[in-house]
Records
---
Amino acid sequence: MGNKTVTWRIAGGSGDGIDSTSKNFATVLMRMGYHVFTHRHYPSRIRGGHTFAEIRIGSDSVSSRGDEYDVLLSLGDSFARNESENAYYGNEEIKPLTENLHDLRQGGILIYDSGVISEDELPDDFDQRVEENNWNVIDLALKDMAREHGRSIMRNTAGVGVTTAVMGIGIDGIKNILEDSMEGDVLEQNKTVLEKAHEKGQDYNCSIEMPEKNNFEDDQVLVSGDDAVSYGAVDEGVQFISGYPMTPWTGVFSRLSQIIPQNGGVAEQVEDEIAACAMAIGASHAGAKAMSGSSGGGFSLMSEPLGLAEMTETPIVLLEAQRAGPSTGMPTKPEQSDLEHVLYASQGDSNRVVFAPSNIEEAYEQTRLAFQIAYDYQMPSIILTDQKISGELRNLDESFFDRETNIGDIGSVLTEEQISELPHHDSGRFNRYRYSDELEGNVSPRPVPGQEDGNFLATGNEHNKQGHISEDPVNREEQMTRRVSKMEDAREDIRESDHVLQTRFGSDDPEFGVITFGSQQGTVSEAVDRMNNSGFDVAGMGVSQMKPFPEDTVQSFIDEVSDCLVVEMSSTGQFENELVKHVDLRRRPQDITLHSLRKYNGNPFRPQEITERLIEVINNE
């Protein structure tokens, strides 16, 4: 990757304002002309526990976290449960320093708050490691400085003031952010703390060479995957959302719960995920564009109503935001181990489409596509994300979101005039579930409750054309075959759409390949660039269309290479299992060999981990 980058990391305890400080600083850097990419690591605790946030800064677009970082601002943990090294979880107060040193690069800068982290608490080998790694250490009592000119809670502002000094950045942008969010004495105190800290930071003889700035032609916005999913849903005209909070699904749920009522829709927080999914199905049945979702454990509860939506052919869009499982697992850590759960959860021969976007652009576009497929083909669409893509922030041209909306279009729904011209039962009930030989395609258009002559039954049992329960063998085969055949119709529609769902990158004539899905694509792409810049011929592919699986596209990619590395955040290789299921590894004279790179320790991949494994593959180790 030719793009020079600098990475800044801020660490503290949950409740110390780490996330908000990093977002504000990222916004300032974006406004200055830099591309930014953020990564957040936090525990599943309300207060206390080591948390950090990174900002990777580049002159060109950045798609991945880096291997190391250049500047560490360690504030210590203000909400530590204890200060004793002999306690069960150790000395938590100092963990924002000790647990971050291994990633600080040679010659990097370490700023720590000696008002919270005292010298006698430092590890015994701290001085030795500083010398070996040539680190520049700035120990300032940031908490005391903040208290002197304002309040101790303003030590974050003091830390950013020192940071800007060593990074050669002015503080006007920081002041603008402060003015946007506060006023009065609090604002003036924060400004004073910022100025004093910036002055103090200039006393130290250390600095970081920053990337070149851009003159962006378009206004920039700083957005996350959660933002992009929410905007896509709004532009498709979502009118109803129901849910129960669960990390990391809560991000989308909270955003849409604010936006949808402002647009005249309804948002409901309910007692559990079964109710959430069932309520959204009811709203969709009534004629609204509806959405719900959850994370692993909550989505498990949705499997029964998910089957109801498939049987009644009621369109619905669900979001499944993965986290490390099983059970409660690690609620705030990313993993991709819900893939098989999302593809196959339900009763009988299930029927749904699944998209796993890899970046902000895909999160927006594939959310819109998920609504279109769901409402055109009367089946569930599922958007599969994870904590990584949910919370990462990246700057993007604001004009990207200047799209035509699809508000008011609820898919394959009949008008009253059309209903009057179509077949009814002698009882007067409408033939809602007609057979394929009566249709153009396999979608039987539906009335909306309240339309004249559109009365039918919707039941989770197998049913006849009017929706009455039926166990007749001929009817069962007709209904089941038609429902399942809709998937192939949807496949063709997806194939002919303008959306990029499988992204190929790297060498045009590769010897080796790397394939991944969802949120790891950006990291894999950077690793592939590094390999090709080092003289290897490597190509990569990121897959987003998980169901129906894009066999032809993936098969063509696999056929280009002799060895292919499968990268995923799963211990059991769930994505690799899908590859083996859908592609032929033996149709060439020489079989294609799949190699695995799996990570499931709660941290997403870094580019170096992928390049190291690729070199092992190339060297046949």
Note: Residues 473-496 form the longest helix (24 residues).
---
Amino acid sequence: MGLGSLMGEIDASSAYAVFIGGAVPVISSADFGVVIGGAENTVSNKGAVVIGGDSNVASGHAASVSGGGANNASGSTSSVSGGDFNTASVLFASVSGGTGNDAAGQSASVSGGFNNDATGTSASVSGGSGNNAISLYSSVSGGSNNIASGQFAAVSGGTANEADGESCSVSGGNGNTASLFASSVSGGNTNTASGWAASVGGGLNNAASGTYSSVSGGSDSIASGYSSSVSGGYTNGAEGDWSSVTGGGLNVATGGSATVIGGFSSNATVNYQVAAATVTITGQ
């Protein structure tokens, strides 16, 4: 048996349902359903609740909408706390505010912002706009148009960054990508960490593609050998395993454990070779 007034509608199948105040609430097939205040709010499942706002719908079992406008909590025990045009569509999903956000993974959450999606299980988006956390426990903390698609992957901010591999991370910057297990990009623009546990600290157009390789900064440099490194400069390459280039420009270390110490257009092609601007020491 429902409790209400002539201002709204409670169908006969909604036992112990109640609405208090507001305009034109609807309670349909919702035992223990509750609408409190607002306008044109609807509950349509057992234990669903809408408190305030307008044109909100709680259609999941024990789902809730706390305010805002045109929000929809359709997943079982899902919730939308405010904002507009937000959707929590699966079990335990939640949206805390903002506009046009969608929590579509089990236990996924969106804390605010605009047009963000958390579609992975236990994925989260904390704010910003156009961000997407796709995989298990993936997260985007802010920024715009960022994607965390690997399991446990994280993007902290920036624009158009992607963390595609498991446990990958991008901390900020623009157009950066971390794509293999535990790889990371700390910032800068259009940098790529595609090796296993590879890292790029910043700069522009740098790539760390070797396992455990790293590029600390600079521009247009590549670390492709196993545990190779480029510390800075421009258009440098550390191609040999354990090779390194400390800076300068147009330097290449192709030998195993070879090193180029700054300068320009120097090559270390022999294993253990050390090359500087005008001095070359050849190892055994």
Note: Residues 1-112 form a domain with the Alkaline Protease, subunit P, domain 1 fold (CATH 2.150.10.10).
